[in-house]
Specification:
The chain is mainly alpha-helical and 584 residues long. The protein has 22 helices and 15 strands. It folds into four domains: 97 residues, no CATH class; 191 residues, no CATH class; 126 residues, no CATH class; 74 residues. Helix 3 runs antiparallel to helix 4.
């Protein structure tokens, strides 16, 4: 049976695998070698640093090889190229190790990608300004495409020669650190090791930004691996037209819905300002496109490239022609299900260049009209697409747990938290600094319950006069009167004559505004002693739902940003637009 074993054995095989504070005793090293020999295991060859553990002990600095990887002959016969790679660690005493059965292949040559980290260096701006050159009156798309390509070439040279590769700097510092650790283990200065560690940490901050770009590059690479012949054949068949004809009978039945004024507005010429707004609304860092220049490049150097870019885009929009230089697209396949097995379980997406994305539409061909995510998350009757905003949706789902704790008191969920967190009250009286992260997340739903739920008065023991919603007027659910006799934590119980099962009129008239006193006394009381009941106003059955909770959060945000009259007019306009019977 093939065997492979890699771990922290806390043992070394030979004396040369330790440096600093004298050698280890020969007896345990010999015993370790004998065990591996009896099991038929051999030490695998490695790439990288020799020592996999470093530490400071009383008296000096120590380096050791404590993490070997071993395998038997059966394993090596199946995987003859097996190699072990020692990875550098900056925060741990042990180095991470990777066992690669297929061997270690050389790093592939990377293509050009504009990197956000370059913007920190003034040399990036100087390089772009020099490569782009002065604006050209009546610039064409081939000219702009050539300038973009020239910027890529010059930025690559600048990165290599002046700015320096972050990974290259990191490797050089790690080599210096390795030598410093060896010197420290031999009795040298340990302060040099600490100084180099600080420098490495600064370089790692820069490297973390590069990983953002590499993750996008990997996303594209994985998509390319899926574009095999049968994928292309599938989508060619799916999107090919059957070339139908004779549409006259169908078109005669379609009634026009676009007025002359709307036509005039839609056909007016595009302007430079619209192009600039479209580019600046794009997400700065996106998946790599064919020219490898993300929107961040154009946004950062708009003063340099803006005139040429606007000139060429407006020329394309007015002429309704797409030059070959920008009509290039990367296709990536995104899984629609977990562990897809059929090509129909992938969704194809296109990765276009930034300049190509600026077009809303051209000629008779339709294209994507780009919009901000916040706009798409608006309800349809307010001009959005009704997509869910994840943060609000997550808060609405957490609120469901608060509702369970208030209503399902016989459940194990309620009994557990009742005993541990709020033994003498309800979830409304728990402080936020108490409990785990999951519990603190659930507590965020209390405010949603307070805003959207209302109390039905029973015995009045659970309702606070001044803090809870319990009045029956939809526009006036809470007491607004100033405190006179009752405290801020007084219960509705104090306003009820429990023997006669009626309101105490004198107490109500003397402590509340006339309108509130009238609303209170209009609330019916049960002839029997019943508990107060919390119900959700937005649902007919009075039970909270995630859908209604999410809608409450959306409505609250909209009402705080837009006046109620403007909101009503906007809803009516969009509802009318969605009801138009237009061809697809």
């Amino acid at each position: 049976m093939p065997w492979l074993c890699a771990k922290d054995f806390n043992k070394i095989l030979w004396s040369h695998e330790k440096l600093g504070l004298g050698p280890r005793r020969e007896t345990p090293m010999k015993a370790f070698r004998e065990v591996l020999y009896e099991l038929g295991l051999k030490d695998l060859r490695y790439v990288g640093r020799k020592f996999t553990w470093k530490g400071r002990r009383q008296g000096g600095f120590v380096l050791e090889c404590l993490d070997p990887a071993v395998a038997n002959n059966q394993w090596l016969s199946l995987n003859p190229g097996t190699r072990v790679q020692h990875l550098h660690s900056n925060s741990l005493d042990h180095q991470a190790i990777i066992v690669k059965p297929e061997g270690i292949s050389p790093n592939p040559r990377r293509t050009f990608k504009f990197k956000q980290i370059w913007l920190r260096d003034r040399g990036c701006s100087n390089t772009v300004n020099s490569a782009w050159g002065p604006s050209i009156l009546g610039a064409t798309m081939p000219m702009v495409a050539g300038k973009v390509q020239a910027c890529g070439v010059k930025l690559t040279e600048w990165n290599k020669n002046s700015f320096g590769s972050v990974r290259k700097m990191l490797e050089e510092k790690r080599k210096l650190q390795t030598r410093a650790e060896l010197d420290a283990a031999k009795g040298g200065d340990q302060l040099v090791v600490k100084s180099l560690q600080r420098e490495i940490n600064e370089i790692l901050d820069k490297e973390s930004q590069l990983w953002q770009h590499r993750s996008l590059a990997l996303f594209l690479k994985c998509g390319d691996r899926n574009t095999t012949y049968f994928h292309i054949e599938y989508y060619q068949s799916l999107f090919s037209s059957s070339s139908p004809s004779e549409f006259s009978d169908i078109l005669e039945k379609v009634q026009p819905s676009v007025t002359d004024s709307m036509t005039t507005m839609l056909l007016r010429d595009f302007n430079k300002k619209e192009v600039e707004i479209a580019i600046k609304q794009m997400k700065p860092i996106t998946a790599p496109d064919p020219d490898s220049m993300p929107p961040l490049f154009y946004q950062s150097f708009w003063n340099t490239v803006g005139d040429d870019v606007c000139s060429t885009i407006l020329d394309c929009l007015q002429s309704c022609k797409i030059p070959r230089e920008i009509n290039l697209t990367h296709i990536a396949l995104i899984p629609k299900v977990k562990s897809p097995e059929r090509i129909s379980e992938f969704r194809p997406i296109s990765l276009c260049s930034v300049i190509y994305k600026v077009w809303g539409h051209y000629g008779n061909q339709r294209k994507i009209h780009w919009s901000k995510w916040s706009m798409l998350c608006l309800p349809k009757d307010l001009g959005g697409m009704g997509f869910k905003e994840l943060k609000k949706f997550n808060d609405a789902m957490l609120t469901k747990q608060v509702w369970r704790l208030l209503e399902d008191k016989s459940s194990l969920f309620h009994r557990f938290f009742k005993a541990k967190i709020f033994p003498n009250g309800t979830i409304f009286y728990v402080k936020e600094d108490k409990g785990s992260f999951a519990w603190k997340s659930i507590l965020k739903g209390r405010e949603i319950i307070k805003n959207g739920a209302q109390w039905r008065v029973g015995n009045g023991e659970n309702i606070l006069i001044y803090k809870d919603c319990w009045l029956l007027d939809p526009q006036y659910t809470r007491i607004q009167s100033p405190l006179i006799f009752y405290g801020c934590d007084a219960q509705v119980l104090a306003l009820i004559d429990m023997e006669r099962r009626c309101w105490i009129d004198d107490a109500i008239d003397n402590n509340f505004l006339p309108l509130e006193a009238k609303l209170i006394k209009s609330i019916p009381l049960s002839l029997n002693v019943v508990e107060d009941k919390l119900y959700w106003r937005s649902n007919v059955d009075g039970i909270y739902s995630v859908k209604s909770g999410y809608r409450l959060l959306v409505d609250d945000e909209l009402s705080s940003n837009v006046g109620s009259s403007n909101l009503s007019l906007s809803k009516n306009a969009w509802k009318g637009l969605w009801k138009l019977r237009t061809p697809n």
